Amino acid sequence: MLTVDFSRFPLAPGDRVLDLGCGAGRHAFECYRRGARVVALDQNAEEIREVAKWFAAMKEAGEAPEGATATAMEGDALALPFPDESFDVVIISEVMEHIPDDKGVLAEMVRVLKPGGRIAVTVPRYGPEKVCWALSDAYHEVEGGHIRIYRAEELLAKMRGAGLKPYGTHHAHALHSPYWWLKCAFGVDNDKALPVRAYHKLLVWDIMKKPLATRVAEQALNPLIGKSFVAYATKPHLPRLDEAGTDAP
Asked: Residues near 247 by Cβ (< 8 Å), separated by ≥ 6?
């Protein structure tokens, strides 16, 4: 289940991609399939081990084109172990709401992104997330849990403040919002409640079968109750200076 829409976020074979806070690796796997040179980074060692296993399995199965590469590694989002301007593309999906120093993370992403490079940021959307917080303290008051809820313009302003130029936004996963509202209402750790189990079966069916009816329904509902807010931006090229130190034409 991808949150980033690659029709709005073009990826070319050979692009060097950083999936920051990769989690289980869903976006990293898609970039690898598209022929990118992928680095999946996360602070969770167990998840990184699993991502590495899946990269190896994909290579063995021939799922990635020739020339594509994939590396999984542990790392700190606030101190990325890469030189300046190392990546053509950076993806950070459902991560920034967990990190106290979100401006520091943005600064690090901009540092390692090449001028002209592209970045995709996804976070829980304000409205649906606010409902979850209202229904359940346990949803967010856990170690490593969500510490803030972003309004769209707040996130875009922080991206602009970091030197990025946003060029597009959308919402995703509308069908997942009611699931999380049910989870919060019945208990985030209570997977036995009948409404939660029934809705989870629906989601699994939808993900596996991708029926037209639910695809159309989700597209129609995304602007209203989409669970995630997605923003795309570029890192502008700096003006070239001539020998006199003025902007070159």
From this structure: 239, 240, 241
The count of domains in the chain is: 1
Q: What is the per-residue pLDDT across 200-237, written as a single tens digit (0 to 9) for each?
A: 999 999 999 999 999 999 999 999 999 999 999 999 98
d(CA 14, CA 21): 21
Give a yes or no: residue 198 inside a domain: yes
Is 128 inside a domain boundary? yes
* Cα–Cα dist 235/108, whole Å: 13
Domain-embedded: residue 115:
yes
CATH code, domain with 211: 3.40.50.150
Q: Is-above-0.90 flag for pTM?
A: yes
Asked, for residue 135, whether it belongs to a domain, the answer is yes
Expressed in angstroms, the distance from the first to the final Cα of the chain is: 45
Give residue-wise pLDDT tens across range 155-197: 999 999 999 999 999 999 999 999 999 999 999 999 999 999 9
